[in-house]
Amino acid sequence: MSILDSLRESASPAVAVEITSTRISAASIEWRGDQPVVSAHTTEGLPDGALAPSLTAANAHDRAAVLGALTRVLAHMGKPRRIGLIIPDVVGRVSLVRFAQVPARTQELDQLVRWQVRKSAPFAIEDAQISYVPGIRAEDGQEFIVTLAKRDVIQEYEALCAEAGAHAGVIDLATLNVINLVLASAGAPSADWLLVNLAADYNTIALLRGPHLIFFRNRATDADGTLADLVHQTAMYYEDRLKGAGFSRVVLAGAAAAGASTPGDIDQIRRSLEERLKTPVDTVDPRAAAGLTDRITAAPALLDALAPLVGVLLRDRTEVKA
């Protein structure tokens, strides 16, 4: 699922780049037979306040610093001309909408989707970039996953890439590609499962029924309540509204990147979630989908950084479905 269908191209990108509020990371994969292997990666830190992800306002507050870091990252990766770009979840808004009847004509469906999401959009719908994919077919209608972003914010990221010498052929949200990674991994879940993805300035929770997205929510880290409270509320919604029978798997991603600096810190977050959910929690591991070369050391922070990057590079294998 791409935030900009107009930028969606048929072939997977050769290099994936993620821009966050604290760093810019990149990775590429090579194929050894039918096995993908991470062949190169790099990360550049960003100064405090250089980039502040936002749905409605300009994101790059120190454009020169962001552009400089992005240029160095791309140089390390061999100056690719085309990339897959991953941006923070809070730059877009993901909604699930359901229609009792779906228009046969695409133009009419486009208008219906835009009318539905305009009620909750924090800016004029004329300024929005919207994409959607079909979701679960239920007895009471067809569901769609809709991604909305402000057009000039997306253009800001496009312009940074272009000035650094690369075309962003795919632009997508971080958590959607962590999901893609899990679905591309060996033993991908086929029953209900939960993903908790942490970032330095927001947390995102996604519920899936096998490969089908059924719930998506993100929240700023400085909002009221703890992560455990947010997860507990989501679990209650899952049981009461979605008639969930229990999670077959719970996956934690991004903890190292969100400030958990030691394995003990990550383990504490994991145990807290296990206590709330009464279910074992696994940390995300991109090695289940793509191998690492011998020269790459699999530290927790690196595995977190690689997760969405590998997810977008393998998106042709399996993508987030609704």
Which fold does the CATH topology of the largest domain refer to?
Nucleotidyltransferase, domain 5
H-E string: EEEHEEHEEHEHEEEHEHEEH
Number of helices: 7
Mean pLDDT: 90
At CATH level 2, the architecture of the largest domain is 2-Layer Sandwich
How many beta-strand elements? 14
The domain tally reads 3
Q: Report the sheet with the most strands, covering strand number, pairing sense and barrel closure.
A: 6 strands, mixed
* Secondary-structure-derived class: alpha/beta
Can you tell me the overall shape?
globular
Flag low-confidence runs: 1-10
Write down the oligomeric state: single chain
Describe, in plain words, how this protein is organized in 3D.
The protein is built from seven helices and 14 strands. A six-stranded mixed sheet has the order 8-4-1-2-3-14, sandwiched between helices. Strands 11-10-9-12-13 form a five-stranded mixed sheet, with helices on both faces. A three-stranded antiparallel sheet has the order 5-7-6. It folds into three domains: 5-90 and 150-179 and 289-313, Nucleotidyltransferase, domain 5, CATH 3.30.420.40; 92-148; 186-284, Nucleotidyltransferase, domain 5 (2-Layer Sandwich). It is α/β, with parallel strands linked by helices. Strand 2 and strand 3 (35-45) form a beta hairpin.
